[in-house]
Specification:
The protein is mostly helical and 228 residues long. Helices cover 82% and strands 0% of the residues.
C-alpha cells in the first residue's frame, strides 16, 4: 500500500513526475491534470447542469422533463466513464501526483482513508461517486488496495458511473418537475422562466461552483490548521 508524501506541493509533485516521465507517461500526466481540473474544479457541475437545463428549456412540458431526465442521467454517466478511465490510467502511471492527490483528498475528507471504495456500503459508494466523482473513487481504490490500472478499476468506473447517472437523473426529474409546476401558475411563471434562463447560462454555474469550491477548500484548510 502506498502512502502520501507530506509537505509536497502540487507544482513539485507534477514537476517530479514530468522529469521522470517517458513520452507516454508525460501524456498520461497532462491528461490526468486536465481531468482533475475538470472534475475536482467547476467544469463537471457546470457542464452537467447547463446541459440538463438546456434540454428542458428546448422542449418544456412533460417532454422537457423526460428529455432532461434522460440527458441528466446519460451525459454525466458517460463523462464519469471518461474521467474515471483517465484517472485509472493516469494514477497508475505517475507516482508523485497520485500521492499528492491522495494527501489533498484526505486533508478535506479524512474519513475516506478507512476503506476501499468497493468495500463501502452502497450508500457510501453513491455518496463518493455522485458527490466527488469517478476519479476520486478510483483514487481511493488504488491507494487503499494497491491495485491500479484500467482493467483493475473497471468495476469501480462502471459502478461509479451508474451511481452518478442515477443520482443526476433523479435530481433532474425533481428540479424540472418543480419548474414545470411553477410555470403552470400565472403568479409563479415569470420567476420560473427567469430562473430557467439563468440556469442555461454556463457562466452563472461556473462562477457559483467555483465560489463553492474555494469556500470548501478554505474551510478544509482552516480546519486542518486548527487541528494541527
Amino acid at each position: 500500500m502506498r502512502h502520501d508524501r507530506p509537505a509536497v506541493t502540487w507544482r513539485a509533485a507534477i514537476a517530479t513526475d514530468a522529469r521522470a516521465a517517458s513520452t507516454s507517461r508525460l501524456a498520461a500526466l497532462i491528461t490526468l491534470i486536465v481531468a482533475l481540473l475538470y472534475e475536482w474544479g467547476s467544469g463537471n457541475e457546470t457542464l452537467n447542469v447547463t446541459v440538463i437545463a438546456s434540454a428542458y428549456e428546448r422542449h418544456l412540458g412533460v417532454v422537457g422533463i423526460a428529455m432532461a431526465t434522460l440527458v441528466g442521467g446519460v451525459a454525466p454517466a458517460l463523462l464519469q466513464v471518461v474521467t474515471g478511465s483517465i484517472a485509472a490510467l493516469g494514477f497508475a502511471a505517475v507516482t508523485a501526483t497520485t500521492d499528492k492527490s491522495w494527501s489533498s483528498l484526505l486533508r478535506l475528507r479524512p474519513d475516506l482513508a478507512g476503506s476501499s471504495w468497493l468495500g463501502l456500503r452502497p450508500l457510501g459508494q453513491f455518496a463518493v461517486a455522485f458527490g466527488l466523482g469517478a476519479s476520486v473513487a478510483v483514487l481511493i481504490e488504488q491507494m487503499t488496495t494497491g491495485r491500479s490500472g484500467l482493467r483493475a478499476m473497471l468495476p469501480v468506473i462502471a459502478r461509479s458511473a451508474a451511481y452518478t447517472g442515477l443520482g443526476a437523473a433523479g435530481v433532474s426529474l425533481a428540479l424540472t418537475s418543480a419548474t414545470e409546476s411553477a410555470r403552470r401558475f400565472e403568479r409563479t411563471r415569470p420567476a420560473a422562466d427567469f430562473l430557467l434562463r439563468w440556469a442555461t447560462n454556463p457562466v452563472v454555474w461556473f462562477v457559483l461552483f467555483t465560489l463553492l469550491a474555494v469556500w470548501a477548500w478554505w474551510s478544509g484548510r482552516s480546519s486542518a490548521n486548527v487541528g494541527s
